[in-house]
Structure formats: structure tokens, C-alpha cells
Amino acid sequence: MNAPFLDDISASLPLIERFRAVRMQTMALCTPLETEDYVVSSMVDVSPTKWHLAHTTWFFETFIVKPYLHSYQSLDSRYAFLFNSYYEQVGARHCRSLRGLATRPTVAEVFSYRMYVDEAVEILCEMIGDDLQHPAWRRLEMGLHHEQQHQELLLTDIKHVLWTNPLRPAYRNDTVSSREPPFQRQRWEHIDEGLYTIGGAEEEFTFDNERPAHKTYLQAAKLAQSLVTNAEYEAFIADGGYRISGLWLSDGWRMVQSQQWQAPLYWEQQEGQWREFTLRGEMPVVPSMPVCHISYYEADAFARWAGYRLPTEAEWEVLAARHDAQHHAIQHINFHPSAAWRNTDTQQLFGHVWQWTRSPYIAYPGFYPSCDVLGEYNGKFMCDQWVLRGSSCLTPPNHTRTTYRNFFPSDARWQFTGLRLAADG
Question: pLDDT class for 342, splitting at 50, 70, 90?
Fold first, then answer.
């Protein structure tokens, strides 16, 4: 069965219609799966599909329905322990590494749980109407963006689950024709030295870690107009990139040795040719496509090998602000990044791969997490992680924005992560 596209759900829709559309999109993404696929966790970072469906429902129930719909009664009070992710203030929770061992509730029971909570949210939406000042309104909007985050996680996680299966089943069984674009020499876009404003605006939805907008001083720099390709990364591998310790950060070199990294995640050599596992199954590595599924360590080592560096997140945002996010987001028909086709403009900022920056994930000047329980959403993770910018081919289109700050630890590879090179001006 083919998977649906990731539809662009307009923010101008009434709240209740947006809620229905986002929740239906999550369920539609599950249509290619068999029941057995819903329950597997293939590593600590990967949660079962069933858990994603239940956790996003628990989020609406816990932070929106219970506080603001006083007539609400929980379907099963034990679900709070199973489907809490990391909210210490809410209570005890099931160990993350054991999520794949919880065969109950069943998939069918999780579907029923979603329907039960959806009915309660719709009652609340009818009560709120168009009252943007109602305290539940902002939380509902946050709940929708939270669910869209999990739509992307659901797909990245199920890709890892299917890859660990010796049969290597495909999420999508259709084939999409693609043309190989002509060779393009890398071009650069320059950023002048000066004072710039970055960060999210208060009048638009942003996560708290994107705020407040603030000024930052940049030295002159240049950023590549397109992403690093598979062909470029293959050259790094062929030149001994994974065998030269001097290219790597100390912890990265230890990771290369202990995990025996030799290529990006999902790459394998067969009869002297590189192949990669995608959501459409195994396929030859296409030279012109952006390299994908590499860690911060690998991105940093490649940049050093190439004679460049990773951009800072401020440099990336200043560059991206010159271009329209929706204009540059590709259609999500492949569930895989696409090659660049023209070299007259900066491209591939959005809708292909998340792009590593050399900026540590820390608070912006003036940032303070909220005092309520949702203050745990982002602020508590501002340690030992790196910022990624842009969006991937699995990011819902209207979840994309220039100020978005994604973040992962240095060794994360299962997400759709790649890189754009930078250099001092």
C-alpha cells in the first residue's frame, strides 16, 4: 500500500478543522503498516508507532483536556504512566528503552484511546470558538505542532525498524521516476559582516527555544548554495575519511572505532557499489542526492576534510531569511531528499535534510522557560546537543519556518540529517 503525502495544512483553518486534519494525517501515515509493525522498538532512540499514537493523545489529554474540560473522565488512568515521555512534574513514567515490550494496550485499544480523546478535544474547541485569549487556545496550537513533530519521528523510527528486519521491507512499494541532474560546481552566497536580528516573532507560533528575537554580530562568511551530495561524501570515504583520526573530534573518533562506522547509516556496499535503505526499500546511492543520516561527528569531519566548516545557526538563519521557506520546500512525494537542479540561487534550505550547525543548543539571550509543566518541553535539553536548521523531506510543510531550532546529540544518525558547508568571508 502506498503512503499518503504530507499535506500542507493551512494555519488559517479554524482550530477544530486544523486539529482534525493533523490527527487524520498521523493516522494516514500508518496506512502502509501491518499491525506487527506498530509494536517494535529497534533501539533506545526509536519508539514504537503505537507509542507515538498514544503519546500524542496523552499530550492533548494531559495538558489541554484535563485542565480545561472539567467534565472529562480518563479512559484508563494507567495510560499516563505508559505514555508520558519526559515530563517529571506530571509523574512517574515507563522506561523509554522498554516501550517496545509493552504489548498492551493493543493497537486497536490505542486507536480507541485516540478517538476518545479526540471527541473531548472537539468539545473543548466548540467551547473556545474563536476566542484566541482562552488559555487552552495556545496549548491546542502547541499540541498540533507537537503532533507534527511526532509525525516526522514516526516515519524516521519506522524506517529504522524496517531496516533492522532482515527482509528489509519497504514502507512504500511504489517507484518514483527521477532524473539525474547535470554536474554542478558548488556556488556560494555571501553574508556581510554586521549586526543581524534572529529568533522567532511573538505574534507567530514558535517554540519557546526560538525566542526571544535578538541581535547577534556576524563576521563576514559564505555558505554553500546547495547541500553536500552523496558523490562528495563518497569521495570522503574513498579518501580514507573514516580512517584518518586527525579529521575527527576526539569523541567522534572513539565513536568511529567503537561502532565501526564506515559510511552513513543505511549505506552498505554490495559488489563494490554503495546502496542505501530508504522508505521505498533498498536502492543504489544516487550521486547527486544530498548525503543523509550522518551524525554531527561525521558532518564536522567531512567539512574539515573538504577545507571548510559547518555554519553557525545564526549564519544559516540570516541566509534562509533571504528565501521563502515554503517556496523552497519540496513536494513530499519521495519521502527522501532530492537532488539540486539549478545553481543560480541558494536552494535545499527546507524539505530535504536537517542541516547540522556548529552551534551548541543553548538558550538565546533573554530566554526563560515557562514556570508551568510545559517549561520542560525544550529548555531542559539545552546541554550536550547541537542545533540543526531547515527541515527534512518528512517534515510537514506548514511545520517549516526559518527560525526553527531542531537539536540532537553528536552521535545521532537515524534522523534525516545532512550538511551545508560554510567558510569565513
Answer: low
